């Protein structure tokens, strides 16, 4: 079985879960559970990438062998443990944060125009399944390789892990700063229309910069070890590149920038903020996709 064929159960689990949840929530035009469902998708697909060989060995309709694998057979190399722990921590934190925000707001504004259209809303759930599968590729591919094929952790792995940790801290700090700013605004402690302090004075979307950094580091930890074949290394680049492209040019930055321009376009402070603070990378770097 090639490394890519081992991803089939992962893909099946990702799409099955989201379509199953869509069958519950699309008829009700319920969007509050969307991000929580995405978090559940990452958790289940990660578990499938680890435990599928054990499950397959015990279920006849999956081609069980004569000798079922014991649960003790399921072991992970240190690199796999780090990647698995990182994705669980990341998805648990982000899923809880986004779900709490959606429930507090009574819904998700991204779906106001489509959630009453069953076809379009279903497509959003399919898109989420695709996102779960593609973004998690570094973890799923790493878990598809036998633990014995993973070399010991090296300095480059430590660098990649540091990128993950620093980017996670950036994302969490940015989210907390904005939450504190909103709470202060709701408590009438200030009357600012938009946040410009803290990390938001370095980038107009620092939380998204952290998100891209997390998956860049995850790719490095999984792909630069030498455990994956080059085809898998290249396939795994879809995670950080896809995350960047989606956030920067599709569903992250563009709608927020349009909303800000619509609300504050005539405000001199907004114009100065847009002029002086980079839209994404705080150092003002422009790369091919910008």
From TrEMBL:
The keyword Cytoplasm appears for this protein: no
Key words of the record: Membrane, Transmembrane, Transmembrane helix
TM helices/strands, residue ranges: 6-26, 33-54, 81-99, 119-141
Name of the molecule in the record: Steroid 5-alpha reductase C-terminal domain-containing protein
One GO CC term, this protein: membrane
InterPro entries documented for this protein: UstE-like
Superkingdom to which the source organism belongs: Eukaryota
One Pfam family hit: DUF1295
């Amino acid at each position: 079985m090639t490394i890519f064929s081992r991803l089939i159960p992962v893909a099946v689990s990702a799409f099955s879960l989201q379509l199953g949840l869509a069958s519950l929530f699309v008829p009700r035009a319920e969007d509050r559970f969307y991000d929580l469902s995405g978090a559940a998708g990452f958790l289940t697909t990660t578990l499938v990438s680890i435990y599928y060989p054990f499950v397959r060995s015990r279920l006849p309709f999956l081609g069980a062998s004569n000798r079922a694998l014991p649960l003790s057979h399921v072991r992970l190399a240190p690199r796999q443990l780090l990647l698995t722990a990182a994705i669980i921590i990341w998805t648990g934190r982000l899923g809880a944060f986004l779900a709490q925000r959606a429930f507090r707001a009574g819904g998700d504004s991204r779906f106001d125009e489509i959630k009453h259209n069953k076809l379009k809303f279903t497509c959003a759930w399919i898109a989420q399944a695709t996102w779960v599968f593609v973004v998690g590729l570094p973890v799923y591919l790493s878990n598809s390789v036998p633990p014995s094929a993973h070399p010991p952790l090296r300095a480059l792995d430590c660098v990649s892990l540091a990128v993950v940790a620093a980017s996670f801290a950036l994302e969490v700090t940015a989210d907390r700063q904005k939450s504190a700013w909103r709470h202060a605004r709701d408590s009438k402690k200030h009357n600012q229309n938009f946040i410009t302090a803290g990390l938001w004075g370095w980038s107009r979307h620092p939380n998204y910069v952290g998100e891209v950094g997390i998956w860049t580091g995850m790719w490095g930890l999984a792909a630069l070890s030498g455990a994956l074949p080059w085809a898998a290394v290249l396939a795994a680049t879809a995670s950080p590149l896809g995350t960047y492209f989606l956030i920067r040019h599709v569903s992250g930055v563009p709608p927020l920038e349009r909303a800000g321009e619509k609300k504050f376009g005539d405000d001199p402070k907004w114009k100065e903020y847009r002029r002086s603070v980079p839209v994404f990378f705080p150092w003002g770097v422009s790369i091919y996709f910008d």
